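Hi L., both proteins are below.
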Amino acid sequence: MQIPRSTVFSGVLLVGLVTGGSHCSNVAGSPGNAGDSGACSTNPAGDDGGDDGGGSPCNPSDSDGINGGCFVFDVSVDDTGFSPVILKAQNLGVVTINLHNTGTKPHDFVVGCIPISFPGCPSQQCFPGAANIPAVAPGQSAIATFTTPNPEGIYNLRSDVAGDSQLDGDDGGVTGLWGQFVVQ
């Protein structure tokens, strides 16, 4: 299903906008989603078209030689967890999250940061604010569209509504309603 940015659906909250220029002519055409055939672009890491895909001290080169593309995830959250629990996309890819709350209380979707250690750079890399979805009421859905960060890594995701998850300050672990967003 193609979702124009200006469309609002009954019962669905549209949360985010694509940060930066959109690389997708049809968000439904995501690599890895069976039956999708829309157009998405991918760029070799060495030819990033000016989208800061690598090579600078704070944005390292891409490990697999691919960045960009379009990714759509239908994610359900209930009172015990997310499904799927692991999401994978390329760095600098345009992602749409369709979050469906099938639980009995509100839950949100928050993606954390990872530590980085490049001299002269910030100490962590985070997803853009548009990736976070505010609390969704039971039986409701919300949509967020954003661009994944660079560098690659495993970013924790969680619901941070009171009582849903707990962050462990010692090792950065999460308990409760959590998952992982793998940027490759």
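That was the first. Here is the second:
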Amino acid sequence: MTSHRPTHRRRERAATLGRLPLLCAAIAFASSAAAFSPDTGGPWGLDLQGFALGNFSLRTTGQVPAGPEGRDLLLGEERLRLDLTAWTEAVEAQLRVKLDGVHDAVAEELDLDLREAYLDYTAGDLDFRLGRQITTWGVGDLLFINDVFPKDWVSFFSGRPLEYLKIGVDGLHVRYSTDLVNGELLAIPRFEPDTLPTPKRFFLYDPFASVPDRHEDRPDTTLDHTELALRLYRRVAGFDVSAYAYRGHWRSPGQRADDPISPTRITMFYPPLSVLGASAQGQALAGVVSLEGGYYDSRDDEDGDDPTIPNSQSRFLVGYQKQLWKDFTLGTQYYAEIMEDHGAYERSLPAGFARQEEYRDLVTLRLTQFLRYETWKLSLFAFYSPVEVDYLLQPEISYKFSDRFSTAVGANLFGGEEKTTFLGQFDDDTNVYLSARYDF
């Protein structure tokens, strides 16, 4: 098989070029659709917008995973977004739908991705949102403590635009505004997990790599398993201060073997989780200071002696952002996780499994420079863990040809001393990517 791999790679690159006409056709369709945005001038209205997007990412390490989607081409897709908004003046209500049509060349599939679909309604001091929605809480920059909602790490590690990191949840969101304090309550009856890399397309650490029989057990869609998330917030002494509470499940699964010695079947499940936290962000030290913390209560592993369930832990971050000169901004953060009952965790860990440290940390750096009236954007986001000694560097250059058409080129550069740490396991997945977007 090795002798045929270079030919296979040339075919993949040729196929990438061959798909460019599909993207051009999507752009042509988008241009014609742009003419459809009726302004009724009456008691109701309808607006249609969207974009055509092409994303192509190539693994640069020369290594190809053995999974069915293992190729040099890590990501090759065309998307057509339709963003529909309908409203009426009879009541304070609005309908919003964001739908992507996707062609995935790696999986050789056509699919629909319903990003959001919700109804907004306002009644006095109460705002209601029912349906699929994307919610962002907390003050971290790509570090999440009280933002307990699902993430798509496949998108983040393979070069899709940043908006695809977040995944919508189906639920009811209620916002209440007063002079004293503002509140948000989100009820989510149907659980949505994180989208994580798998051996089908990525190199990664898997302690059960030799066990092909996998089963996923998600929480039932019942009242008992309905997730509840609460946020209370107001401005205090120049800072935006929030308090958070969440009761639901871990978004990343635990793995349980049918036989601890000779497993033949692995069940992935999502243990119960409760989170209490707070954040504050405001002007200080000639810049913007961010503070956030949270306590993760792993309700089904109070003693920390079940190796299939994450231990309870405390998390915190400190961030600082400052504009150093015109159109140049620097941001940095320090983030840490402290595991409870680490001794019990070590005693229960099966032989041969990678050991997690009691204290895990991350340092981040963001550099952003705009040039030529913000048509050029040069950016770098870097993660580095002093404890695990691994990193991810994300440099990117983007250019706006016009208000409608833009392109970006960048990279995801992974590395680490061990193949078992969170970022180090993707060392062979280092990639460069290209995206082109036309808005209408």
